[in-house]
Write a structure and sequence with these properties.
Helix Hairpins
Length: 294
C-alpha cells in the first residue's frame, strides 16, 4: 500500500514525465503559484500597495511556503524511483544537492530560518531576497533549460580557461592603472578597489565616466584594455552560442534517427514486464492507459 501510494505520488511530481492528468494539474498549479509569487514580490516594492494589503501578502507567503515545502518533501521522498537515485539514503542525498533541488531548498529555507531565529532586520531583508529563487523553479518545467545546462557542462573547461584569463587580465590592468594614476588622482585611484572598478567598466566598454585616467600612459593603457576587452568578453559568448547550436543539432539528429516503437510493441513490453513480476497489474493497466491516450 505504502509503495503504491509512493509510486502514484512520484508519477505526479516526476518532472521528467509529462503524461497523465494529475501530472499536468500538479505542474500547472506549481507554475501558477510561482508566477503569483513573482508578481507578489514586485508588488510589495510599492509601499502604498504593500501597506494596504499587508495581511494578504503575509498569508499568501505562508500559503506559498507550505506548498513549496510539501512539494520539496514529496520530491525527496519519491526520488528513489529515479534510476540514478535508487539508494534510500545516498540517493536522496545526491538528489537533494542537484541543481533544481538546491533552488527549491533556498526558495523556502530562509523563511523558516528568519521565523525561528532572532536575526538582525538587515539579515531578514537579505533572506527575503532568496524568495527570488522561486523564479528559477520555472526551469524545472521547461526542457530547453536542460540544453543550456548540458552546453555549460560540456564546455566548462573552455569557459573556466577564459574566466581565468579574464580575471588575470583584470588584476594586471587594475594594478597597472593604480600605479600609473594613484599619484595624479589619489581621490579616484586611492586603492585597488577603485582601480578594479575602473578595469571592469572599461573592459566591458560600459564606461560610466566616474573614473578615468588623465595621464598619457593611463590613456594609452585604456586604449589597449578597450581593444583587448572586446575579444575577451566575446569569447565566452561565442563558446556558449557554438555549443548551444551543436547540442540542438545533435538532439534533432538523435530524435530523427531513433524510430518510435508502435503502441502495440510498447503494450507487449509492458505485458511481459507484468508476466515477469516486475510491475503489478495496477501499474500495467495505468501505463497501458497512458500509451493508448497518446
Amino acid at each position: 500500500m505504502s509503495e503504491s501510494i509512493k509510486k502514484r505520488v512520484f508519477d505526479i511530481v516526476n518532472d521528467r514525465d509529462n503524461d497523465g492528468i494529475p501530472n499536468h494539474i500538479f505542474d500547472y498549479a506549481i507554475i501558477t503559484l510561482i508566477v503569483l509569487n513573482i508578481i507578489a514580490i514586485f508588488l510589495e516594492t510599492y509601499k502604498p500597495i504593500y501597506t494596504e494589503y499587508y495581511n494578504f501578502f503575509t498569508w499568501f507567503e505562508y500559503f506559498s511556503v507550505i506548498l513549496f515545502t510539501v512539494e520539496y518533501i514529496l520530491r525527496i521522498w519519491t526520488c528513489t524511483y529515479y534510476e540514478e537515485y535508487t539508494n534510500p539514503v545516498i540517493g536522496r542525498l545526491r538528489y537533494a544537492i542537484s541543481l533544481m533541488m538546491i533552488i527549491d531548498f533556498f526558495a523556502v529555507f530562509p523563511f523558516y530560518l528568519s521565523l525561528l531565529l532572532p536575526l538582525d532586520p538587515r539579515v531578514v531583508k537579505l533572506f527575503r531576497m532568496f524568495r527570488l529563487f522561486r523564479i528559477f523553479k520555472l526551469f524545472r518545467y521547461y526542457k530547453s533549460f536542460e540544453v543550456v545546462i548540458s552546453v555549460l557542462k560540456k564546455n566548462k573547461d573552455y569557459l573556466i580557461s577564459v574566466l581565468i584569463i579574464l580575471i588575470s587580465f583584470l588584476i594586471f590592468v587594475s594594478y597597472s592603472i593604480y600605479i600609473i594614476e594613484s599619484e595624479s588622482q589619489p581621490d579616484k585611484f586611492q586603492d585597488f578597489d577603485n582601480a578594479f572598478w575602473w578595469s571592469v567598466i572599461t573592459l566591458t566598454t560600459v564606461g560610466y565616466g566616474d573614473t578615468y585616467p588623465i595621464t598619457d600612459i593611463g590613456k594609452f593603457l585604456t586604449v589597449i584594455v578597450l581593444l583587448i576587452g572586446i575579444g575577451l568578453i566575446s569569447l565566452p559568448t561565442g563558446i556558449i552560442a557554438s555549443g548551444f547550436l551543436d547540442e540542438v543539432r545533435k538532439r534533432k539528429e538523435c530524435s530523427l534517427s531513433i524510430p518510435e516503437n508502435s503502441i502495440a510493441d510498447e503494450i507487449r513490453k509492458l505485458y511481459q514486464l507484468k508476466e515477469d513480476g516486475i510491475i503489478s497489474e495496477e501499474e500495467y493497466q495505468r501505463m497501458k492507459e497512458k500509451l493508448v491516450a497518446k
